Amino acid sequence: MKAIRIYQYGNAGNLRLEDVPPLSISDYQILVRVHDAGVNPIDWKIREGYLQKVMPVSFPLTIGQDFAGEVAERGKNVKRFEIGERVFGFTQGAYAEYAAATESTVAAMPELINFATAAALPTAGLTALQVIRDVVHALSGMTILIHGAAGGVGSFASQIAKNYGAKVIGTASGDDIEYLKSLRIDDIIDYKRERFEDRVSGLDAVVDLVGGETLARSYPLVKRGGVLVTTVQPIDASVANRAGIRAVHLVMKRNAADLAEIAALVAKGVLQPRIARTMPLGEARNAQDLSETGRTHGKVILKVA
Question: Alpha-carbon dihedral of residues 15, 16, 17, 19, nearest 10 degrees?
Answer without folding.
Answer: -140
